[in-house]
Design brief:
The chain is of the alpha+beta class and 397 residues long. The protein contains ten helices and ten strands. Strands 3-4-5-7-6 form a five-stranded mixed β-barrel. Strands 8-9-10 form a three-stranded antiparallel sheet, with no helix packed on it. It has a two-stranded antiparallel sheet with strand order 1-2. α3 crosses α7, α7 packs antiparallel against α10 and α8 packs across α10. It starts with 7 loop residues before the first strand and ends in a 5-residue tail after the last helix.
């Protein structure tokens, strides 16, 4: 048994790094609830770092035993409402919040805003930012099928104290009145502490091959199904930090969570290793387009022409059952080979989604606001065509 004691660091990106095994609750095996760290009223606090005790050996041990999927009742999943529970928002709900100063991160427009002093959320905005739409659709698809992802809610935001363009000027003159952002998307983390060492965050897709079913980890079928789902949605921005290794112990213990966004649990026993490590995908903003070298937003995020014309499988002379996903410079997944077990596992999940659920998925994500030239019915038809590519394929044993 690996000996660990709780230690938490918050990075400049505001992401809680769980370097020990302090975890948060999730409801109904589908991470329906979320969490949030206490924040200062106007600026996100950065507490002093605590010496890490989660080692590379601990991390490898957690990956070997990690799961990647949990069963859900797919036909009953409400893709319009999305993940329910504390901190959820109805589609197009108007949300008021107070602007929070936060270090700039990533390459697309976002800012942090306090719904209450204890509940700070990440907000993506701008009509031409594909991630505003793609993050909603992709995370809800993963959630409905039983794979791990953050929660994303399509809303309208009235931000008190915001600059007119907080992404371009996050420390400049603030507005004396509310600044309105429509469309906007609020994101909440999937509950569960992230398990990271001081020099390594997230995970690379090749590390799925380190998972050992004999040690209690996910099966090859489940791991390959996750890879194939990433191909299906064209998850082009697959750098390590866009995936997370989390601990879900409190889900099984039934301990109530403390907050919305951080995943830190209220109760934790010292010197206890994580019994339920889980590998999930954190950022799915560059999806429903086509993978490209630099993960450019226009071709990779909610681009109907690119997504509908990209085949699921490579057909250029490579071996059968190689997923068609062009690699990016910082990405860690491209053209993965898929086993027959993995193909069948994902196919059996996808066929359970009804046409009504698919319409809800694309309507709620507001895809036609990103691309008015193509209707929701066209997106549904493209989804079903790509699903059929997976269903009809037969991979070598």
């Amino acid at each position: 048994m690996v000996s660990m004691t709780p230690a938490v660091m918050i990075s400049a990106k505001g992401r809680v790094r769980a370097v020990a095994v302090s975890v948060a609750a999730i409801c109904c095996l589908s991470w329906m609830r979320g969490a949030s760290a206490a924040q200062q009223p106007r600026e996100i606090a950065e507490p002093a770092a605590v010496q890490a005790r989660f080692t590379d050996t601990d991390r490898l041990n957690a990956i070997r035993r990690a799961q990647v999927w949990m069963p859900t009742d797919i036909p009953s999943m409400n893709l319009k409402a999305g993940p329910p529970g504390p901190g959820s928002f109805a589609p197009e709900q108007s949300v008021s919040c107070d602007y929070m100063v936060h270090a700039r991160s990533g390459h697309t427009a976002k800012f942090w805003c306090a719904v209450t002093p204890e509940d700070v959320v990440k907000v993506r905005y701008r009509p031409h930012n594909g991630e505003v739409y793609a993050q909603v659709a992709a995370t809800r698809l993963f959630w409905a099928l039983g794979f791990g992802a953050d929660r994303a809610y399509p809303v309208k935001v009235a931000c008190r104290g915001c600059p007119q363009n907080p992404w371009a000027n996050n420390v400049g003159a603030k507005s004396r009145t509310s600044v309105f952002f429509d469309p906007a998307t609020i994101e909440r983390k999937m509950p569960g502490d992230e398990l990271e060492t001081t020099h390594r965050e997230g995970w690379a897709w090749k590390e799925l091959d380190l998972v050992d079913e004999a040690a209690g980890g996910a099966s090859l079928a489940q791991r390959d199904a996750l890879k194939l789902l990433a191909v299906f949605v064209q998850h082009t921005d697959s750098k390590r930090s866009n995936q997370a290794l989390t601990c879900l112990d409190e889900q099984f213990r039934g301990v109530q969570q403390r907050s919305y966004n951080t995943g830190r649990s209220a109760v934790h026993a010292e010197n206890e290793e994580c019994a339920h490590p889980f590998m999930m995908v954190r950022d799915l903003g560059n999806t429903f387009g086509h993978g490209n070298v630099f993960s450019r937003n226009v071709p990779s995020s909610v681009n109907f022409e690119k997504w509908s014309q990209t085949q699921v499988w490579r057909s250029d002379g490579k071996a059968m059952c190689v997923g068609h996903l062009s690699g990016s410079v910082s990405g860690t997944l491209d053209d993965p080979r898929i086993s027959e077990a993995g193909r069948k596992f994902l196919a059996d999940l996808l066929v359970q989604l009804s046409d009504a659920q698919l319409r809800d998925l694309f309507e709620t994500a507001r895809f036609t606001r990103r691309d008015s030239a193509h209707s929701v019915d066209e997106w549904v038809s493209a989804f079903k065509h790509k699903r059929y590519e997976i269903v009809k394929m037969s991979c070598p044993p």
